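thread: overnight batch results

M.L. [08:02]
morning all. the overnight job finished for the chain we discussed friday. pasting input first so we're all looking at the same thing
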Amino acid sequence: MHPLYSVAEIRGIEHLAAQRLPEGALMQRAGQAGANAALDLLPFSTSRARVLVLAGPGNNGGDALETAAHLAHAGAQVTLMHFAPNGEPSPERAAALFRARHSAVTFADLSLAEISGGDWSLVIDGLFGIGLSRPLEGAMAILVSTINQLGCPLLALDVPSGLDADKGCVIGPNGIAVRATHTVTFIGNKPGLHTCDGRDHAGLVQVNNLDLEASLFPSSRTHLNDVKFFARHIHSRRHNSHKGSFGNVAVLGGANGMVGAPVLAGRTALLTGAGRVYLCFAGEALPYDSGQPELMCRSALGFDFDSAIVVAGPGLGTSSDSRAVLALAASGAQALVLDADALNIMSEDSALCDAIAQRSAETVLTPHPLEAARLLGASAASVQSDRLRAARELASRFKATVVLKGSGTVLASPRGDVVINNTGNPGLATAGTGDVLAGLCGSLLAQGWPGWEAALAGVWLHGMAADVLVTEGTGPIGLTASELVPAIRVALNRMVEHHGR
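M.L. [08:03]
and the structure it wrote out:
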């Protein structure tokens, strides 16, 4: 089920394991795991491979020393830059240094020009691990900048140096972090590898638990998204069904000049299986959608919001009329998805916030970082500096499922569960994709999915559709939100084909 562990939890596991294992066993296992991951990235003829290993002053550097010794033993040409600790090293790190010095590893103090000019098959980052709390500065920052520009595969041991393993942000406002192509992370997976800056810096992540017993690992409230989390709600359609079997969706939005947003949300809801979809316009209603005439266009004023799952916010605007109709929709008994301008209105209306927090029906919030910041009375930078905390706080405050969008979208439940989504790519960074996601979540709710699972499945399908489009040559540059909709339909039907009951 892909659990994610905080640094504190990893430290606890390490402490328990150290009581059961011989001294240095964890570092030796990490070194072997690092070497195995490195060998997978090297040319077929290991003897021709030139590997640069950077071993920092702490235990992450000890892992690198062990990795270097194993690679040299396997026949690779290993050059090691060793950064000695200021104080007394740990016994296991001292033992690792002894083994590296008594191997075929070449210790060298390379200049930046020698690093840049080296014909490296692979660079291994073992500078700093999960314990780093200060930004990389001075010569170390210049070194990291240099290896980031080499263009060869770059393997990080445990976590790319300079990246916060819990939060996924580069440490320090002007900090720098290793931009790895691959990361082999030890003991357990870390949330910071998968959200915010994490995906850009960690590359492909491989988890090695160092052969630790399952009993050492606590149950986790944080996971990577997986179809297994929502598979029980994937159902094949019965022949004996009709449009009423699959629910109604009402998209509330479309102030004057912003009609495209509800159209995108409504088309998504229709093409992902909702039985009936209404576009409820806060401004002048379209007579019909010529591209999707099955959508029913209405004025928001006078619409019975108790008759449908409501997706509120796409192109809604923030006028007094928009505020009034949002309050009416929020007072209804149906599940509610709040996006875009609905969230902006909430951030300026404490009474509406209180009403939403007290709703008995399910509520799903889908903010991007700036919308989340407005709801929290904070800055977007502070939200991004700890995305898991921000999502949890919103979920608790509004008693809602929260989808904090961005690289590694973070979902939080009112119970405190957190899931990081690992599908999607930069093609989603374009106008309208949030409207598509909101419409998809509303569609799944209308078809009977619970709010938490509808959000999990929605973000997974949304990202998967973008991934498939990029694989097929559409994007990421220039991918549009409307192109996502038919791709999501295909992904949903394939998911039902493989997992439906």
